[in-house]
Amino acid sequence: MLALTWDYHTYEGRDRVKKFLTDQLPKFSLSTFKLREDLVELQTPFEDLAWIQGYFTFDTTVGHASGIFRLVPLANGSWKGHTVYTNLEDLRGFPEKIRPSSHPEEIYGESAEAKQERLEEEPSVIIVGGGQSGLDAAVRLRALDVNALIIERNECIGDNWRNRYAALRLHDPVWYDHMPYLPFPPHWPIHMPALKLADWLESYAHVFKLKVWTSTRVVIVEPGTKGKKWSVKVVRGDGRERFFEVNHVVFALGISSDTVRMPNIPCREEFTGQVLHSSKHKNAIDHLGKKVVVVGACTSAHDICSDYADHGVDVTMIQRGSTYVMSTRNGMPILLGPLYSENGPPTDFAYRINLSFPNAIIKLLHQRATKVIAEADKDILDGLHRVGFKLNMGEDGSGAFQLALKKLGGYYFDDGASQKIIDGKIKLKADGHIARFTPTGLLFEDGSTLEADVVVFATGYGDAREAYLQLLPAGLHNAVQPIWGINEEGEPNSASREIGGHGPDADKVAGLWSLMGNLAMCRFFSKHVALQIKAYEEGIFGVRY
């Protein structure tokens, strides 16, 4: 990762690895290799699978880097190199300043809002979006003495989580989700409620004195005309316009666009009840005494149905396709093991261990783990089968792994809703397709009907790329590569890199960056985006391989 390529690559096979090393090693002059002997260990994740894992550090002409290797045993008793991972940690001469010296012009006693509003100097980077990805990018850039301004359309930092449905909580454990330089407190809940995360994000921006303009909207990002690559037009909440000329824009827009996906079901105008997308759903108590139908059977649908059931609302889930289900109780410890736990290693080191496996190998490991999880979850899965819930084992039996990498959906990490479906507290209809609305509910293709006062579509959002195109002139749209998903090497398309990727028109959108994903991804890859921007600004960025 960046250390030898200024890019993200996976090379497999002797010939490809040899060519890569022949091309790149002379350019980076590797030196000062140090093996961390305390981190060398034999690992046996399965009875028939073993490797020796080791951690090392080294220097290049431009930076300080780390690496993780694995040796596997051969039948003749020898050991053979299987994988080597390298990662750029820092730039030579530009260490991170986690605790910058105080600025003499700082006005103590000034409100947090006023501090955020003041711009002592024009920003070098505009960050579009103030969620976890935008904050992580800003704090990483700040540590590298790069001046960044976050543009957030909501009234407050954290509103992107506050404005979601009230029952929303993270399904990843807290040890996986720490943010840069400031981990969550030891007493923090293992699975964080969205509203708690929202407050944390707002506090985080204040603690690090990040420059944020809230209630501000980016109108367009277009080629600059004043010596900089990009001109960014923003509109404040009171209608004032402002233009910024910068070389870098980080799009921190989330994992999808604002466009909601809702199936076009005929005769909607005949329905006398309420129809809404899950993005507009807030609280189950809004529909007490109503009959509610939720269309969808993945994470949002389960969360919303569970909330309705907890409040005694008559709720039915309509499942259209099969879903991969894994309990957080059994699944997370198997998938994450001791890496992310109360007594686990530092989170940054744990994440490097995760990323040191090529995705093709992770898929094989997840295929095995998925079977182990299914056995541990047998009672829940058997119960779901009995009531007609349609299940799958993920793409090629890899559980949620490929589903998350490719489409960010199709699965549910169960924290209680599955049992409610089994017990009938959440009713289920999974035996037919919706034909049309009726005045009092839904008619299905098999002739059956379902009465409803409220229909909630938990059917997802549009592709992330759409949100980028909305902010760019039409002439640049073809240069923007797919954002989420993985390429032929198993590496991210454009997430955590410039949005032109390896496309033929990448130069047209140079300096436009994407940062997105869950808290763990944003924590880790925000540093990679910041290191690349810093290298560009200091004139030491090389050539992408």
Strand arrangement within the widest β-sheet reads: 7-6-5-11-22
Low-confidence stretches: none
Q: Largest sheet at a glance?
A: 5 strands, parallel
Could you tell me how far the N terminus lies from the C terminus, measured between alpha carbons in angstroms?
Answer: 11 Å
Rough outline: globular
Which range best describes the helical content: under 10%, 10-25%, 25-40%, 40-55%, 55-70% or over 70%? Answer: 25-40%
Mean pLDDT, as a whole number?
Answer: 94
Count of DSSP-assigned helices = 14
Structural class: alpha/beta
**Number of DSSP E strands:** 22
Radius of gyration: 25 Å
Content of β-strand: 15-25%
Short description:
The chain is of the alpha/beta class and 545 residues long. The chain has helices spanning 14-28, 112-117, 132-143, 159-162, 194-207, 299-310, 328-336, 347-355, 359-376, 378-386, 400-407, 417-422, 464-469, 519-538, and strands spanning 31-46, 49-59, 63-73, 79-91, 125-128, 148-151, 212-213, 217-223, 230-235, 241-246, 248-251, 274-277, 291-295, 314-318, 324-327, 411-414, 427-429, 434-438, 441-444, 449-451, 454-457, 512-514.
